[in-house]
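call fold(seq) -> tokens
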Amino acid sequence: MEYAFVLRPLGADNWVAEKRRIEVRNLPFLPTEVAVTAGLAEGELVALSSVRELRDGLAVRPAARSKQQALNQSRGER
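ret:
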């Protein structure tokens, strides 16, 4: 995986998918999982939809957010 689609807020209920380069490393003893080592910040929302359906700048809507994510968003934090 060389990139991920991060959800970037444009307003209260407006979001866009932003294609971003990331770096990953394999996890020992977990062959189907990786750790993201660069390119994402803690708390950013990542799209989990089919990558074929996504493109940079596409309007998207998060399926659900935790209370902490909503609170951080209202404070302007990520």
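The chain has a mean pLDDT of 82.
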